[in-house]
Each structure stands twice: as C-alpha cells, then as structure tokens.
Model the fold of this input.
Amino acid sequence: MNETKHHSTDVVIIGSGAAGLSLALSLANHCKVSVISKGALTEGSTLYAQGGIAAVFDKKNDSIESHVEDTLQAGGGLCDREAVHYTASNAKSCLKWLIEQGVPFDMEFDSEGKERFHLTREGGHSHRRILHAADATGRAVQTTLISQVQAHSGIQLLEYYNAIDLITDKQSQEKHVKGVYVYNRKAERVETISAKFVALATGGASKVYLYTSNPDVSSGDGIAMAWRAGCRVANMEFNQFHPTSLYHPDLQNFLITEAMRGEGALLRRPDGTRFMPDFDPREELAPRDIVARAIDFEMKRLGANCVYLDISHKDKDFIIEHFPTIYAKCLSVGLDITKDPIPVVPAAHYTCGGVMTNFDGKTDIDNLYAIGEVAYTGLHGANRMASNSLLECIVFAHAAAKDILAKLATHPEPPALPEWDESRVTDSDEEIVITHNWHELRLFMWDYVGIVRSTKRLERALRRVELLKQEIQEYYANFRVSNNLLELRNLVQVSELIIRSALERKESRGLHYTIDYPELSENPTPTVLSPTDGDATIK
Done:
C-alpha cells in the first residue's frame, strides 16, 4: 500500500462539476483526459444549483447588451465590462451545446402553439432570460454531462481522489506546471499524475463558513493549491450569501431558489409583514447582497432565528409544477409550501473571487488553467448575478479547451515526476486536532467575516487564522495526509486570503459590507493578492 502509483495523461482536470466535465468533453476527441473527483462524480455544487442559466434567447424583448448592463449593475462597479460582454456574447452558443448534450430544459407553447424554451427571471435581471429544468437545473446539467463522460472512451475518471498540490518547475523565468500529487482516498495513499496541461475546476470555498448551501467538498482546494504554487488571486473578500436557505434542523444546506422570488414569492417578518420594500425599490428582486443584508438586519433587529419566504398566494398547481423539488423536500419535513411560508436564513453560497485568469482560462503559471467558481475572470465583480455561474463554467471551459487544443500538437510529453516523500511522517494519533480546528475556523469566519464586518472583527479573525495556519502546517509536516487534513489545510489558507482581502477594502461595496467604511469609494479597483510578496495590493 506504500507504493506510489503514477498516472500520465495529456490533460488532468481537477474537479467534476459543470466546468470540469464540459472541458473534458470538449477535449476528449483529441487527447487523453483524466478527471479527478474528490468524491463521487455527482458530489459537487453543480448538482445543487436550482435556478438556471442566463442567456438571451428572446431577441424581440431582450438583448446581449441588456444582459451585460444587468450584470454590471449587480457587480457593484467592479465587473470587467469586457469579461461580461465576452460571457454574455457566448452564452447562447454554450447553451445550445448543453442542449446538444441532452440537457432537458423546460419548454412551453407560445400563443401560436409553437414550442419554445420557458424563460424565467431572477434577482438583478431586467428580463426573462433564464433557461431552467424545473427547479433542479444543476442536477439536469450534471447528470447529463456525467452520462456523456462515462460513455467516452477517451476520458479517465478518478473518483475519490483529492488533489494535494501542483507540481511545478522553472524554465527561464517562467514557472510551468508538470502535474499534481493526489491522495487516493480508497487506497489511502499518495499518487502522482503527470500531464501536459492541468485545469483547476474545483469550485468555491463556502465551507469556510458555518452555514452554507454548498456540499462538503467546497473547501477552496483549487484556490489554495494555485496560491501555494505562485498564482495571484483577486476579490476574495466578495463571498456571496444566498438570502434564502431553508431553516430546518432536518434539511441543512437546502437552498430555496431565487427563481421562487422571480415568480412572485414574498419575504415576510415573523409577524407576516413584508420588509423588502423598506430596503430597495426592486423589493424581492433586488440583487442577492441587498436581500441577504436586509434579512440579516431584520433577524438581528428582531432577535429572530429566521424570516419567511411566502409563495402560498400563488396557485397550488403552479407552485408544484415550477418548484417540484422544493415542494417535495419541504413536504418531507412537514412544510406544505402551497399553504405555509418557508422559514429561511442566509447561507454562504458562492465565491466571487478566485485564481486570476485571462479569457482563455490561463493562470499566472504556464499550462495551468482555472475555470468556473475557482477562477476570477472579472465577470462577477463585487456580487454575482443569479444564473451567471453555470454560464461562466461552460463559456470558459470551451475557451480553455480551444486554447489547449491549439497548443497540444507542439507540446512535449509530460516529464517524470518526483515521488511523494513520507519517509519522515507517521500516522496521526490526534485526529481531534483536525476536528476542533475545523469547527473553530468555520465559527469565527461566520462571526467575524460574515455578511456584516468591522475592522476589529477582521483583525481578530486574522490573528486566529494565523495561529491555526501554523498549527495545521506543523501537523501536516509530521503526519500522513488524510482527506480531512487536506481540506482543513486549504480552508485555513483560503480563509486567510479572504480576511486579508477584506482588510484591504476600505469601503462597503457589493458583498463586502463593513460598519467602519459604510460609503462607496470613488474609484474602485479589484483587490489582487500576490504570493510573491504575501500582501494584498490593489491593482
């Protein structure tokens, strides 16, 4: 069991969500592809995405420029207009590709009896432009892509493998990626994968927070690995809290899609009165950061455990047809959403910052790509608009595939890699250290680096995370790796990046709200952190 196993491939993709599987399918007819999945192929954020994917299909009433302007407005003045336009312009072709793969988006008949896609609307969007598969779009996308990659002979699927670190070298003044160390969870051993190209598609880092809508695998692995390898990261202070996660002990992490508010659901205080009209003229359709802060404010003001999302005034058949997953889930714990309001609280949901890339998905390291939630492309700015996330996965997966294929023929074969050295480590007899530090980290991140922040809270969090980082590094150096240790190591690193980024931003903008700097600055710029100097720099 101690023997190190070596794999060799053309492209290794770390992550098996919409971004990773789309990239794999776009490459597999031309080269050998390996996909690493930390758990089962289904266990990622894509599967739980409910709302849909934004694209302009109704040219009569909508336009790409409208999609761009809505995204820019939601992004709080920090989106890269060129990135937004690039994404929106490629949206329809990418959706058509998904349709060709077999994703069953909902259809309807128009007034003339012709079949067309049913388009819904979500917060921040000025038009109906969201393609969806009922209220389980992510599940439809993920299961369709999984069936396609499983059927493709050119794709090697490595399930229950956790990437540890990227393997790089320096040639001239540039750093190149050569492969990756991975932990085989079933065999409990470290293996190596050499590759011509490596793509990070690991998703976000919302598990740094105590309450999150994300699955357990969302531990910021790709961001942490890229940072340790020498990549810059940007806008890590912007963590989106989804306003409406179900508040119920038996269904933790269950999301109530924003599309429900798009179809007329209202937010109410425990006494039944509405509160969103007091916070924003767009009311329930305001962007997520505004809605989440409004809920947080009302809960703290009233001392309430939750607020309520009410769609019971709509027709019963309409509710069940449009939200069958939510209806069934809530009914399983005694909540009938056709009659009862749904208890909801905000939960950490999406990492808007990430590893800096260009429009081809390329990072600061040669032959290393980052796509999807792990990446910072400039699309989201200070706040992600609903249903742009799955879109970003597909658009930049296709862009990365095009760039890789253009280089593939002239790229040398991957070199031999150094084996993993565990000659000086032992098995741990103190797993409680990992468990304790995991809980402590997520608790102080929620309390000090959550929806509303202050300089004092952030400084307190930074002191704690620096101590934790030191403890974990010492533990990592002395004991054999485990899945929990690897995730904790990455969560601590990403938490530090979030805190340092938040301390740099001396204003309140989008998802970053601090009571010490409540006003907007006049000339906002992204927060860029570089591992070469260890400090945040605004560029």
Summary: The longest helix spans residues 455-478. Confidence is low (pLDDT under 50) at residues 535-539.
